């Protein structure tokens, strides 16, 4: 048996950017300038890694530009790595089936002779989908009375497992709508809470706002008053090899119960005093993706700002909050149209966007279903959220939100972890 010791690197391409994972597991974002091809930038980074290690390395890329498996030497010369077929057998079928890594992984690979004996392992993995029942079902189960879980409960368990999974490289969610007061900050905080509580921290909610962003007002503040303006001058220090995970704590505000961190803007300053240019955003993004596995952007309302456009370029998923009103819905529709006309990456975000329609007041006459129906075929999913006074104003805490009855025109209340909360791999 030959053991392959060739170092391997990975790159996931999204628009003009990519996440590069070196052979030692270090993940970093890389970005192409307007006159560069991101593919060439990735190859140059891989060649630099080959020079550092003194040997050629395998480069496996995926994402916007397709899937590729290459061998890169220190000069940047590329050699395609052939896909080797694998022979597999199914227990109910004696004929071998050819498979490659271009399709689904083989269900069972037979490495030895056909008559090689097999035995069942004593070690079995416990599926996270099968969680202990709680409440009256749990009590009945402990008494020996098995009561099947409801369909809604089973779906919620599946959703929670999906949210709790980790992935290679960072992911980013943009929460955006050009109209103010439609629930962007609330949606940002609740998304960050769900991913951090179920997936185990390392989640950043970033108030990417020039114009009096309120995420910092509605979340916990540390014993200091730092904002994104304080972080900018020290990005180089935080990206140094000797920097430690705790160094970022001086510039973000940890949410003790919900387990995510907040990077605040300064709502007391005019927009002209806290503009962030494209290069500055790039440095901030490098810091964010070094210390966090997931970034959730509260976008603000200025869609022409450099930081807003760079947020779109860096994001993997778009979430558009809206109220069940014509003005809010029209703003959401215009955003989708503009993104589809902008570039390929932005169009993909629009096609896979999730629309969140929030009921603004208890007993409001406008039915969210009317707005939701208008977006059929325009986005990947539409979710309706019942009115909740805990989310309307004051501190945003996940535990403060309470289950609500079904909304008018909605079959059931939204679960805590709906199935659309799933960042693309």
List its traits.
single chain; 425 residues; alpha/beta; Rossmann fold; 2 domains; eight-stranded mixed sheet; six-stranded mixed sheet; 28% helix; P-loop_NTPase
Task: Tell me what the structure shows.
The chain has 425 residues and is an alpha/beta fold. It folds into two domains: 8-80; 159-400, Rossmann fold (3-Layer(aba) Sandwich), CATH 3.40.50.300. 28% of the residues lie in helices and 19% in strands. The strands form three sheets. Strands 11-12-10-13-9-14-15-16 form an eight-stranded mixed sheet, with helices on both faces. It has a six-stranded mixed sheet with strand order 3-2-1-4-5-6. The protein is globular and about 65 Å long. Mean pLDDT is 78; it is low at 83-115 and 404-416.
Brief sketch in words of this structure:
This protein has 425 residues and is an alpha/beta fold.
Largest sheet: 8 strands, mixed
Distance between the termini: 33 Å
Total helical elements: 12
Mean pLDDT: 78
How is the CATH topology of the largest domain named?
Rossmann fold
What is the count of structural domains? 2
The order of strands across the largest sheet is 11-12-10-13-9-14-15-16
What is the level 1 CATH name of the largest domain? Alpha Beta
| SSE series | EEEHEEEEEHHEHEHHEEHEHEHHEHEH
- List segments where confidence is low: pLDDT < 50 over at least 5 consecutive residues: 83-115, 404-416
What's the count of strands?
A: 16
Can you name the CATH architecture of the largest domain? 3-Layer(aba) Sandwich
- Morphology: globular
> What would you call the structural class?
alpha/beta
- Helicity range: 25-40%
**What is Rg?**
24 Å
Could you give me the name of the CATH homologous superfamily of the largest domain? P-loop containing nucleotide triphosphate hydrolases
Task: Name the beta content range.
Answer: 15-25%
InterPro entries: AAA_dom, P-loop_NTPase, ParA/MinD_ATPase
Biased composition (Low complexity): 400-418
Domain AAA: 171-338
Region (Disordered): 85-158, 393-425
